[in-house]
Design goal:
The chain is an alpha+beta fold and about 200 residues long. The chain is about 40% helix and about 30% strand. It contains 4 helices and 11 strands; from the N terminus they run E-E-E-H-E-E-H-E-E-E-E-E-E-H-H.
Length: about 200
């Protein structure tokens, strides 16, 4: 069972400790949304801080390269139905390298040494992408978010099992308890049997 994860911030995030032109792409981010297999998932504030730390570490030493790809909106939406995606949302339109955006979408995968940053404008993800050549990979980010998702799914399964157990217990209690109508019918049946026995005895 998949769940959607989203964490809201009212102040800029991703305040990394080093300076880089690459990180200019993430200035003034106000909200981050996480998607897994087309569903949104929600993490805690502590997990959010850990994600920021891992993400900043992964971008350290990265280089922005000429755009290697062009996104098509319909294809991007189709691709988001599978895998792990992160959407960075801004409260205004940002322009970098003469390309505007109000959100950036990233597909996080294993063993990936470069990533396309898909630009969004009014929820339309289409046009030239930014491309980052990473010094390492996003493996630590991927593994951490997958672990968060598994923790959420396990918690949901435990809650569902507990609810099912409660329903079975309540149903069992109801089945073992006679209703007033059932008790009255049973008493009437016993009274009828007693009267019939007395009539037969008298006739004999």
């Amino acid at each position: 069972m998949n769940r959607f994860l989203c964490f809201f911030m009212i102040i800029p995030i991703l305040l990394c400790s080093f300076s880089s032109n690459v990180l200019d792409l993430f200035d003034e981010v106000n909200m981050i949304e996480f998607y897994y297999n087309g569903q949104q998932i929600e993490i805690s504030s502590d997990q959010q801080e850990k994600f920021e730390e891992l993400f900043c570490n992964a971008l350290e030493g990265a280089q922005q390269m000429p755009a290697f790809g062009v996104s098509l909106h319909d294809l991007t939406m189709q691709n988001m139905k599978e895998g792990l995606w992160i959407k960075f949302i801004y409260n205004k339109t940002i322009v970098k390298s003469e390309m505007p955006f109000d959100s950036i979408l990233i597909n996080i995968t294993k063993d990936c040494h470069g990533i396309n940053l898909i630009r969004g404008n009014d929820e339309i993800f289409e046009g030239r992408c930014y491309y980052l050549n990473l010094k390492g990979t996003l493996d630590d980010v991927y593994d951490f978010l997958i672990e968060c998702i598994q923790t959420i799914e396990n918690k949901i399964e435990v809650e569902l099992d507990f609810q099912e157990q409660e329903q079975i217990t309540i149903k069992g209690e109801i089945d073992l308890t006679e209703t007033d109508d059932e008790s009255e019918n049973k008493n009437s049946s016993l009274a009828g049997t007693k009267s019939s026995n007395e009539i037969l005895k008298h006739l004999n």
